[in-house]
Design a protein that fits this description.
about 200 residues; mainly alpha; two-stranded antiparallel ribbon; about 25% helix; rod-shaped; NDUFB8; NADH dehydrogenase [ubiquinone] 1 beta subcomplex subunit 8, mitochondrial; transmembrane; membrane
């Protein structure tokens, strides 16, 4: 009866409706709910004890744990500095918790992991990175196309046209792309007055 006496006033106070519900923000009603602040990194470790505590927090060995040096710029706090490693560089024979990304549960990821979501080979130096390497690749590619264009148009005979040109002259040569000095033209017209035909007078 004592329990019924405690529950009955609560039932009377509640609105008799199955659609309308009040949102409760008490700690008891929000049990198990996480917020963004719960995933924020902690303050930058300044002592050895704080560094060991942060390494244990992220499940890393103390000798492998190293926080970001420019934590003031990025706001990384005690988050570990992890170099990005693509899926292609990880072993395919290890039993991963997530086989698609080759990661394990609670494994710390690089701070800019969302930059590499659709890349599988990041971490490899496959592309030119310095200004000198990029200039060499650019001018090398452009120069190759220029040389091919020059040799193909000057040292290799091109195909003839489908029909010979009829007016005002025709070419007598291997093709229309040869130099003008190597082309003989047949003139089909003249400015001389026409000779009268015999018996026209």
């Amino acid at each position: 009866m004592a329990a019924l006496g405690r529950v009955l006033p609560l039932l009377v106070r509640q609105p008799v409706s199955v659609v309308k519900r009040s949102i409760s923000t008490s700690p008891r009603s929000l049990g198990g709910v996480y917020f963004e602040k719960d995933f924020f990194p902690g303050p930058y470790p300044k002592t050895e004890e704080e560094r060991l505590k942060a390494a244990k927090k992220y499940g890393m060995q103390p000798e492998d744990y190293k926080p970001w040096e420019n934590h003031d710029k990025w706001g990384s706090g005690d988050y570990p500095e992890i170099q990005p490693i693509g899926e292609d560089l990880k072993s395919e024979y290890e039993v991963w918790d997530d086989k698609s990304t080759k990661t394990n549960f609670n494994e710390p990821l690089p701070m800019r992991e969302y930059h590499y979501t659709d890349r599988f080979d990041y971490g490899q130096d496959l592309y030119p990175s310095s200004d000198k390497e990029m200039r060499v690749v650019f001018f090398g590619m452009i120069g190759t196309f220029v040389l091919l264009h020059y040799f193909c148009n000057n040292f290799f005979a091109r195909h003839d046209e489908a029909l010979p040109k009829q007016f005002p002259f025709t070419y007598e040569g291997h093709g229309t792309y040869w130099h003008k000095s190597n082309i003989k033209r047949n003139i089909h017209y003249t400015f001389e007055p026409a000779e009268p035909a015999e018996g026209s007078e």
